[in-house]
Specification:
Belongs to the aldo/keto reductase family. The protein is an alpha/beta fold. It has a single domain, classed as TIM Barrel. The protein has ten helices and ten strands. The strands form two sheets. Strands 3-4-5-6-7-8-9-10 form an eight-stranded parallel beta sheet. A two-stranded antiparallel ribbon has the order 1-2. Strand 4, helix 2 and strand 5 form a beta-alpha-beta unit. The chain starts with 8 loop residues before the first strand and ends in a 17-residue tail after the last helix.
């Protein structure tokens, strides 16, 4: 798959263009650091920002977006903003209200992508009906899910009017999720990675260090490029300008088939986050 610029996009099932690379803001608290990180990302060419209601930082993200738009001299329409429905708000009416609250906190007229954050048993189908309502009202350009396994997706797909366009899950070299990736590809669902760097746990891996040395790149850049060459949208988190810039310097090199194979060989089906089949929030 040829991805040669930060401007390159995946095409979702409904034709909406989603940037391959974005900024994640998980665990970044409200405040100047958050606002500045979002602003810096936009100035440095990022066009996708990913947040969620449970992160408690939608207001700061919205502020950073507004500052970034001004400082980068771009329009809101050039950005791709994602937020997510939290578990406590799942259900039809509660999901509708939660979406409006997120939109208000972000200070936006619409979202580009709205996701169900986790597959809460007995509730995610009602939540999906709410997302379909929001989508049909053109309050979001695309809808999808997060942390859904194949079983959850098969169950959901039995009843949908609008099919999910994205599935955002934990994905990194220790958790390659090949079966889930293949299923999503078959179903026309764009696969997206959260925690692509395994929260820093892979940065001293000898296999990755060797590949990084061969390419004159950092381990983080190697992992993120592996994601892109696998057709995986990725949203690394950082608040530091140097790291934000480094994480986007992925488009002047390609991993070889041998590199890809070596990285694939690191898979251990090991998670840093909860298992979607057995989670408690």
């Amino acid at each position: 798959m040829k991805i040669e610029s930060i401007k390159d996009t995946a095409i979702l099932a409904n034709g909406v263009k989603m940037p391959w690379l974005g900024l994640g803001v998980f665990k970044v608290e409200e405040g100047p650091e958050l606002v500045n990180a979002v602003r810096l990302a936009i100035i440095n060419g990022y066009r996708s920002i990913d947040t969620a209601a449970i992160y408690g930082n939608e207001e700061g993200v919205g502020q950073g977006i507004r500052q970034g738009i001004v400082d980068a001299g771009i329009s809101r329409e050039e950005l791709f903003i994602t937020s997510k429905l939290w578990n406590a708000d799942q259900g039809y009416e509660t999901a509708l209200a939660a979406f409006d609250k997120s939109l208000s906190k972000l200070g936006l007229d619409y979202l580009d992508l709205y996701l169900i954050h986790w597959p809460v048993k007995g509730k995610y189908k009602d939540s999906w009906r709410a997302l379909e309502t929001i989508y049909q009202a053109e309050k979001t350009r695309a809808i999808g899910v997060s942390n859904f396994h194949i079983g959850h997706l098969k169950d959901l797909l039995q009843d949908v009017k609008v099919r999910p366009m994205v599935n955002q899950v934990e994905h990194h070299p220790r958790l390659a999720q090949k079966e889930l990736r293949a299923f999503c590809a078959e179903q026309g669902i764009q696969f997206e990675a959260w925690s692509p760097l395994m929260q820093g746990q892979l940065l001293d891996n000898p296999v990755l260090l060797h590949i990084a040395l061969n390419h004159g790149k950092s381990v983080a850049q190697i992992i993120l490029r592996w994601n892109l060459q696998n057709g995986v949208v990725t949203i690394p988190k950082s608040t530091k300008e140097q790291r934000i810039i480094e994480n986007a310097a992925l488009f002047d090199f390609n991993l070889t088939p041998e590199d890809m194979q070596q990285i694939d060989g690191l898979n251990e089906n090991r998670r840093v986050g909860p298992d979607p089949d057995n989670f408690n929030f």
